[in-house]
Structures are given as C-alpha cells and as structure tokens.
Design goal:
The chain is 67% helix and 0% strand. It is mainly alpha-helical and 278 residues long. Helix 1 packs antiparallel against helix 2 and helix 1 runs parallel beside helix 3. This is PGG domain-containing protein. Keywords: Membrane, Transmembrane, Transmembrane helix. It comes from Quercus lobata (Valley oak).
C-alpha cells in the first residue's frame, strides 16, 4: 500500500515537473522509473506527455533506455513516441511566443523521442489503430493551421516594410528580405517545414530587414547632414521623428528574431550528456 502511494507521488511529481523529488527517488531505488498510471507506462512516458524535458533527460543516463522507450501502456497501447504525438498541455507552451514556434517545439519533442525509441516503435499501432506519426498529425492539425497563419501574417507585415525600403533606396541588395518573406508566403507548409525550413527563412528575412533599416537610416542621416550641416536645429528633430516608427518596429520584431534563433539554433532543451546514474 505504501509503495503504491510512493509510485503515485512519483507520477504526480513527474507530471508537475518536480525534478529534484523524482531524481532522488529513482536514484534511491531505480525500480521507481516504472511508476505509472492508466495513461503512462513509466515516468519517462509521463514526462513526454507533459513535456518535462529535464525529467525526460534522465533517460540518457539509464542503462535500460531501449526497454523503457519501447514499452507501451496497457490502457491505450500508446508507446513513448505516441506520447510525443499527443498535444502538449497548454501550460508547457504558454511561454513560447507564436503558434509557429509552438509547432516547432512539438516537432523537436517528437524527433527527439523518435531518435531513441527502437525502430519497431515507429510503426506501432495503438488501440485507435494509429501510428505515432499519424497521431501527431491528427493532434496538431489546428496548431499547424494557426502556425501557418502566424507565419504568413508576420511575413506580410515585414514584406510591406521591406518593400518601402526598396522603393526608397533603389538598391538590389535591399530586395533580399522581401524575397525571403515572399518565400515564406509561398511555402508548402508541411509539418517538417516548421522544424527548420520556415524558421530559417524568417531568421534570414528579419536579420536582413534589420540590416536594411540600419543602412537606410545611416544613409538618410548622412544625406540630411550634408544638406543641412549649417542648420543642425532642423537636422536633429527630423532624425528623431523619422526614427520613432523604425524604433517601434524593431522593438516589436527583434524579440521574435532572438526567440526564433534560440529555438532553432540555440542549446537543446534535452540533456543528452546526462551522466550514467544507473
């Protein structure tokens, strides 16, 4: 009875992401990694379902990784990869800005779990008759649709700014951001595109757009200074007024560029270098 309550507590702690408690319990007695409920086959299954990356990272330091990764629950027949194909709890995605980045994070989870499960799991059917990939597609249709709309809306607004810069500067080099955003608008928007292809285009587009804005303002300021070098009282207010909309646009879009770059090329949320602890 007491052991059963301990296992229940470990499963609840896994779902809540209480890493310290889970780690100390399974380290004291590794058999506790098999703690489960009706929806999961072990703690790693629950960690994937509730997107607890730190707890899931413990699997890299466990010498029974293949056995754990290949297990399925008795109630629904879902494997670890099926769990990655389920929709993430909203609380695990609330801190991620934009539906496209949320879709990217879900794909990162699926690909990470896919890389460690035995090959036979890829085609395993649960009791609904769905493979993990089919379950992922079914559960993420709405998120994918919202991600497509988010990417197109962002690209459209940036295309307008880029087109204005091209009109003002008359330089071929400034067409690069416009072309990148047009590439986003005309993409096929397959699931895989959200993992790296679309974010890469957005990163390049925003980076070149910011460079174009800086170059335009530098050129504008230099030209104005040459024309009004003896009337600085006119020059400074004009530059300040012209900088206001540019500054507001950069402040709104630059955090997006940083978030997308970190999500695509930054450190992984999964601790693959976890030391062997059992």
């Amino acid at each position: 009875m007491r052991t059963g309550r301990v296992r229940d507590a470990i499963v609840r702690a896994t779902k809540e992401g209480i890493f310290e408690f889970v780690f100390e319990m399974v380290k004291a007695d590794p058999i506790f990694v098999f703690s489960h409920d009706a929806e999961s086959s072990n703690i790693f299954s629950a960690a994937v379902q509730y997107r607890r990356a730190k707890i899931f990272g413990l699997i890299y330091g466990f010498n029974m990784k293949s056995a754990l990764a290949g297990a399925s629950d008795s109630s629904y027949g879902n494997t670890l990869l099926h769990m990655a194909g389920m929709s993430a709890p909203s609380t695990s995605l609330d801190h991620i800005a934009g539906a496209a980045l949320q879709m990217q994070r879900e794909l990162q989870w699926f690909k990470e779990v896919e890389s460690i499960v035995p090959p036979r799991v890829h085609g395993h059917l649960n009791k609904q008759g769905l493979t993990p990939q089919q379950l992922f597609t079914k559960n993420h249709e709405d998120m994918m649709s919202k991600g497509e709309k988010w990417m197109k809306d962002t690209a459209s607004s940036c295309t307008v700014v880029g087109a204005l810069i091209v009109t003002i500067m008359f330089a071929v080099v400034f067409t690069v951001p416009v072309l990148m955003f047009l590439g986003i608008l005309t993409s096929r928007y397959a699931e895989e595109d959200f993992l790296e292809s679309l974010p890469r285009k957005m990163i390049i587009g925003l980076s070149t757009l910011f460079f174009s804005i800086v170059a335009m303002m530098t050129t504008f300021s230099a030209a104005l200074l040459l024309m009004l070098h003896e009337q600085s009282w006119i020059f400074k207010p004009v530059i300040c007024l012209a900088s206001i909309p540019i500054t507001l646009f950069v402040l709104m879009q630059f955090p997006l560029l940083v978030a997308m770059a970190n999500s695509t090329y930054g450190p992984s949320i999964f601790d693959r270098k976890m030391k062997r602890w059992f």
